[in-house]
Write a structure and sequence with these properties.
Blueprint lengths: L3 E5 L4 E5 L48 E4 L6 H4 L2 H4 L4 E4 L2 H9 L5 E5 H5 L5 E10 L6 E5 L8 E4 L5 H12 L6 E4 L6 H7 L4 E5 H7 L5 E4 H9 L3 E8 L8 H14 L1 H12 L3 H11 E2 L4 H17 L8 H9 L2 H4 L2 E3 L2 E3 L14
Parallel strand pairs: 3-4, 3-5, 8-9, 8-10
Antiparallel strand pairs: 1-2, 5-12, 6-12, 6-13, 7-10, 7-11, 14-15
Length: 361
């Protein structure tokens, strides 16, 4: 199966088939999102509540836990009914890296944080009722390059990211088979300017900046799709992490109901987001419905386990997995013992056999 894509050169625009006519992973026009007027399409300042849309929700919990959330477009279905179902929750809204810091500082009890933060402490708990996952294209985690990725000597990472920074390192090792030098741009810097005028051949960009930059540079790689090409598995970007020693009470049930409420009103959420962010409602609905997955299924657990193994080999996280992941790994390791085909790409064997592989042309 091939995808129709587009190649943007300096003076011409021509069509090609992905994977067959070019070594670059072109992102199809159908999978591109274009931001309007510099609006941050990934981060909306407020947490959307059902009551704002005329939807009545009966409170079911008196929990007073401090809960951290990210008010991105792709998280709105997860947290749609959170404060209505549990009005006493002390909800804090912040970027993923800031939530991770607050969780480590014990300023939060539970937070929706990057999966790499979950890997970082063996004593972290996990609430598996919902998560942010992708199974192929995710649109908003992109690597832009002035040269084919195999020729990139320096890659500039995104200061807002934790998991995506780890993911590109994993992909460079086992997918692109390169060993670049890593740099980190400042939070105030424009990633497009960094790539155009800096010394870096490639730059990793997430969120709104990635959506705005799509199509501007000749080489563009969707990391969600590259992960799928490498492993044939979904990728888990964020999970509900519990600070050690925290009693979560009925919060798992609240999170489950919040997701159910969000999915039941996905069209309303998309319409409201489109108005707030000045985007097409159909675009928002397709993004939420087709690009993002919200449940930890068997395959997403496999993807998370594979990513943990690779991160631990590279020293990105400790070799000892957190308890919930350890239980899943110990439950049945047979599916990791030998290579098998999932989708189009073979699932890698166990970590003792993982070796960098050459790219297919």
């Amino acid at each position: 199966m091939t995808d129709a894509g587009e190649i943007r050169g300096k003076n011409a625009l021509s069509s090609c088939e992905n994977e067959r006519t070019t070594h670059n992973r072109w992102i199809p026009r159908a999978h591109r999102v274009h931001a309007l007027g510099g609006v941050n399409v990934m981060r909306h300042a407020t947490v959307l509540k059902p009551e704002l849309l005329g939807i009545k929700v009966k409170p079911v919990s008196r929990s007073k836990l401090a809960v951290g959330v990210v008010s991105y477009l792709n998280t709105k279905p997860l947290i749609f009914g959170l404060q209505s179902l549990a009005p006493n929750l002390r909800v804090q809204v912040a970027p993923p890296s800031e939530l991770a810091r607050r969780l480590r500082e014990k300023r939060l009890d539970v937070a929706l944080v990057s999966v790499s933060e979950y890997f970082s402490r063996p004593d972290y708990g996990l609430i598996p009722e919902s998560a942010i996952c992708g199974d192929g294209y995710v649109r908003s985690v992109l690597l832009f390059s002035r040269v084919p990725i195999e020729q990139a000597r320096t890659i500039c990472l995104d200061p807002e990211s934790l998991t995506s920074n780890a993911l590109i390192k994993v992909l460079c090792r086992w997918h692109f088979s390169i060993e670049p030098t890593w740099a980190m741009r400042s939070r105030r810097s424009d990633p497009a300017v960094v790539l155009e005028k800096g010394k870096n051949e490639a730059v990793l960009v997430i969120g709104n900046a990635a959506l705005r930059m799509s199509g501007r540079f000749p080489y563009e790689y969707d990391l969600g799709q590259e992960w799928w090409r490498l492993t044939g598995l979904p990728f888990v970007f964020a999970v509900w992490v519990v600070r050690p020693g925290t009693e979560v009470g009925d919060l798992p049930a609240v999170l489950r109901q919040s997701l159910q409420l969000g999915l039941a009103h996905l069209d309303r959420i998309a319409d409201e987001a489109a108005r707030a962010l000045r985007l097409d409602p159909g675009l928002c609905l397709n993004y939420l419905r087709a690009m993002i997955r919200y449940e930890l299924t068997e395959r997403t657990w496999q993807g998370m386990a594979r990513f943990f193994e690779m991160c631990s080999i590279l020293g990105i996280c400790p070799p000892c997995p957190p308890p919930a992941l350890a239980r899943w790994l110990n439950r049945d390791n047979d599916h990791l013992a030998e290579p098998r085909i999932t989708g189009r790409m073979p699932v890698l064997p166990n970590k003792e056999r993982i070796q960098p592989r050459a790219r297919r042309h």
